Amino acid sequence: MDSRIPQPDPATASRAPAGDSPVAPGALAPGPLDTDPGRRYTIYLVIVALLGWALAAYDTNLFNLTIADITSELGISASALGVMGMLVYAAEFAIALWMGRVMDARGRRFAWMLCLIAAGVFTGLTFFVQGFWSLVLVRALASGFANAELAVSVTLVNEQVPARRRGMLYSIVQSGYTVGVFMASGMYLLVSGLGWRAVFLFGVLPLVLVAIARAKVRESPRYLHIRSLRAALGRGDDAEVARLQRVMPVDVSQLEKGTFRQLFSAAGGVRRTAVSLSVTWLLYGMSYVATNIYLAYWMAEVKGWASSAVAALLLVGGAAGVVFYLVGGLLGERFGRRSVLIGSAAAIAPLALVILVSERSSVLLVAIFLLFQATNGTWSGVGYTYQAEVYPTRVRALGVSWMSGMLVGGFMLGSLLWAMLTATTSLTSTWIIIAVVLGAAQAVSTLFLPKVASGQELEAIAR
């Protein structure tokens, strides 16, 4: 199968039909898509987006830091905690998909504000929980909207930043996750003496400040174009449809407002892209369960490490990860996002094998550090810009939201597989199957992803 996305011929681009086929940026008629947002606004947008993603991580890590205190006070068992985890994942999956429809129906900016405000409200409401089910409800909604922040940010930011530095700029946004880890740790250290409830109450303050800053963010011109096209089609204004098609060609036969059928209904580029990305991100999420979520537990049980030692190493890895996000962004600009994804995924299985067979602390330290960067820094530094690039504008919000759902789906399937394997076999065998075998399968799946050259306008990439 040829997984490449063909690039336009400049000599014929101006005669491109009204569809989702690529067109050269220079072929677009003057309109909202060729408006330079300006350097100051671009910097402002990147900073606000970085802080928003940091606060999504902040909410998650506030809960991780307080979970022992919460379960102790509310009398929640370990098995009940597992049930809650699955329900939270289910909420994240559902809200991510719903947010794709909100982005199409109400706009990227509206969805961005909704995610942050809802996450802030339910983070604060954690203060009032009195039992298991109230905790599940509040945490499912807080985590669901915080996780959906990623899909909206990927769509809105990548549709506005300059094409020449799009990958690098979004890698800066993505590095905000590690900022959120440190913010949560700092807030916990400052107010945990007042009890775990106070941690969540004070945790609302940064969310409010970022929501205020986000009010000045502009709507995506590409969304406004699609909205205008839908309106013109609705009133039968053929002249306006023709004018808008000259600004940005769109396959109007597929322009169905807020439906995921656009991703899979017709053979060709969009369906092939959606399938290949879905497989890759499902495998990534499943292997991530071993290489990140349960890594400290596995190291403690199999290698005899103290959990605090693994946590300290990952904290250092998180700090260094800011650099690796940027390195991933730079490499993506130079060699292409797909190449960095292939290289990052190819490192997972060998590093997991080194961790499995080695008993030397120095080797394990290096291998765990590099595994953390391959599954977070360089992978995420390019992966989410790549998602925004390979979908056409008419389906970008839906496609990126679908991919957020696939990541959560990978976590759910990986957690289920982990539970089944640990109940029937050894932790060593579990590591081999999830970290090594699924990590290798993830690497193979990246070979089927579409090829995209960096630095192009979005309309010249996706079809």
Automatic annotation (TrEMBL):
Residue numbers spanned by region Disordered: 1-31
InterPro entries: MFS, MFS_dom, MFS_trans_sf
Transmembrane portions of the chain: 41-58, 78-98, 110-130, 136-157, 169-190, 196-217, 281-299, 305-327, 339-357, 363-386, 398-419, 431-449
Principal localisation: membrane
UniProt entry tagged with the keyword Membrane: yes
The organism's place on the tree of life at top rank: Bacteria
Native source organism of the sequence: Brachybacterium kimchii
Positions of the Major facilitator superfamily (MFS) profile domain: 45-453
PROSITE patterns (alphabetical): MFS
Membrane topology note: Multi-pass membrane protein
SUPFAM superfamilies referenced in this protein's UniProt entry, alphabetically: MFS general substrate transporter
Keywords: Membrane, Transmembrane, Transmembrane helix
Cellular localization per UniProt: Cell membrane
Record Gene3D superfamilies: MFS general substrate transporter like domains
Pfam families recorded: MFS_1 (PF07690)
Name this polypeptide is given: MFS transporter
